[in-house]
Amino acid sequence: MAPRLNLFATRNVLRHITQSSSSTAASRWNTTRASLGSLSSSTKQCLNAPQIRRQAYSSSSKQADQQQVPEEEQQPKGPSQDTLPDVSHEAAAMDKILSGKKCDGNAPGSPELEQGTPIDEILKRDKDALKYAPKVLRDQAKKGTRSFSTSARLFQQNVQQPAAENPGDASVEIVENMIMTATDQAIERNPGLKFDMPDRLAKTEHFKHRYDPVVEQFTKLMMEDGKLSLAQKNMEIILNHLRTSSPPKLDARRRLLTALPSPQLPLNPVVYLNILVDSVAPLIKIRQQKGLTGGGASVPMPVPLSVRQRRRTAIVWILSAADKRKDGQWAMRVANELTSVAEGRSGVWEKREQVHKIGVAGRTNLQLAARR
To answer: Where is this region: Disordered (predicted)?
Structure first.
């Protein structure tokens, strides 16, 4: 970018130039007058003539003054200061360079494609390079073609080519016979198939029911906002904790529904989880029913539960108790709550006992419901 022009500084410079030029002109005029004063009167008359006056101030005198000033020497131009050639001259120079070089059909080859020396020429000139060159380049330099093929052998005829080349090799014939025998046996067993058909899955083995029922129900009750994969990861952490934890110290008053000893429970975490859920699952639920005694008071009625309902109630109790813990991660809170259930220290046991106590007390209300 060109520098800006300062108008104030330029004004001072122009004023200095005009003053110096005017003083120079005045000194020249004084010198001329002094020389004219020393001349004779006749010479003054001649000088006052208009023609002489015109000649004194003509352009020829200026040209003579300019010729006396020495000319500046011309400096050599740099490589980037030369003028560019015309487009036609540049095209002619490129055509001269690329004349006779073809890279693809009739198209002229570019300098990039033609630069360098082919490897074949280097190997022909240098015998040591040919000696230590790869086998592919040595074969190509000798024969002109490669001695191997990189194409895949897709047909059996290509496999049988060594037998035709070496008819006396017994190992090749043995391998060929083994392949033919195995192919014939596969065709006899299953026409059109090379391998046997897979066995059909049993009716109990279904894709949607590939997990244990308790594990699947527990996982889906832990799920929040439809994030099943996150619930499955949490269930994996819980089962891993049950498997790696120490054997529980069983409480004699709150026994688990199993005949297995305590040290064998962590060996199978799925069975361990089933035992814990079934042990705290209530057998009944309490339903409040109005009008049985003839007034508006509600009467507790015990209602039996199915297996799935019992397990659901137990899992909900365990999850609500784990939510009140402060053990850090959600999966670890549930795992620690299950461990406390196994040792009889969880509040889920008290809930189960309370429900059973109310149900035993409300058995008499069943007769009132039967009468109505």
So the answer is: 54-87, 100-120
